[in-house]
């Protein structure tokens, strides 16, 4: 029996991927287009990873350059300024997911575990009045597997009664790490490999 639902945020609750993708292009607009598009591809494949990890990847793996933690934070703050206010707009909320949450948040204990920056995530959820549905809302720089573990441990949840709903392989890895069931959503590439939610209509 499922009692606890942990939602990924980007791509599951909020249709934020296009805005965040464009955000990386704007953030690194002074760099060569080929390198930036490599980062964009990495970003799209690794939806559950934080902006901090993606910025490090851009410099370390694509540009073959070292980058300090201070510089990573500087770029992450710039990225926040580019994307945060735009995403605090109701038009980006995935209505099917919202309808499910509104109808079921009193039946299940719901949480958000996201790769998005924690401060940005809570700003967006508060602005959109989504925070009232969730017992906790957590994001990066903590990695998702640690966030999920914290939710389970703090609330003393049974892993057999807890699921994670996400749209990326990184979400699956976070669920696997914590020995909970994973349900894919809004990403057809996950469909043949995992339990999958085609529609929240009729879901548990």
Automatic annotation (TrEMBL):
<dbReference type="InterPro" id="IPR036412">
    <property type="entry name" value="HAD-like_sf"/>
</dbReference>
<comment type="pathway">
    <text>Organic acid metabolism; glycolate biosynthesis; glycolate from 2-phosphoglycolate: step 1/1.</text>
</comment>
<protein>
    <recommendedName>
        <fullName>phosphoglycolate phosphatase</fullName>
        <ecNumber>3.1.3.18</ecNumber>
    </recommendedName>
</protein>
<comment type="similarity">
    <text>Belongs to the HAD-like hydrolase superfamily. CbbY/CbbZ/Gph/YieH family.</text>
</comment>
<dbReference type="InterPro" id="IPR023198">
    <property type="entry name" value="PGP-like_dom2"/>
</dbReference>
<dbReference type="Pfam" id="PF13419">
    <property type="entry name" value="HAD_2"/>
</dbReference>
<dbReference type="InterPro" id="IPR050155">
    <property type="entry name" value="HAD-like_hydrolase_sf"/>
</dbReference>
<dbReference type="InterPro" id="IPR041492">
    <property type="entry name" value="HAD_2"/>
</dbReference>
<dbReference type="InterPro" id="IPR023214">
    <property type="entry name" value="HAD_sf"/>
</dbReference>
């Amino acid at each position: 029996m499922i009692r606890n639902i942990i939602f990924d945020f980007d791509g599951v609750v909020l249709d934020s991927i296009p805005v965040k993708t464009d955000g990386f292009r704007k953030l690194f607009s002074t760099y060569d287009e080929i390198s930036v598009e490599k980062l964009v591809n990495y970003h799209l494949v690794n939806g559950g990873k934080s902006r901090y990890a993606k910025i490090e990847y851009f410099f370390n793996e694509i540009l073959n350059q070292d980058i300090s933690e201070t510089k990573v934070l500087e770029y992450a703050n710039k990225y926040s300024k580019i994307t945060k206010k735009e995403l605090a707009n109701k038009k980006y909320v995935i209505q099917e997911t919202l309808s499910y949450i509104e109808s079921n948040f009193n039946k299940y204990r719901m949480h958000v575990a996201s790769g998005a920056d924690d401060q940005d995530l809570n700003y967006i959820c508060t602005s959109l009045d989504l925070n009232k549905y969730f017992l906790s809302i957590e994001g990066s720089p903590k990695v998702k597997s640690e966030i999920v573990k914290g939710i389970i441990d703090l609330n003393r949840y049974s892993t057999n009664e807890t699921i994670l709903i996400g749209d990326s392989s990184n979400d699956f890895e976070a669920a696997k790490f914590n020995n909970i069931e994973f349900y894919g959503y809004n990403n057809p590439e996950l469909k043949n490999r995992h339990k999958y939610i085609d529609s929240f209509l009729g879901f548990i």
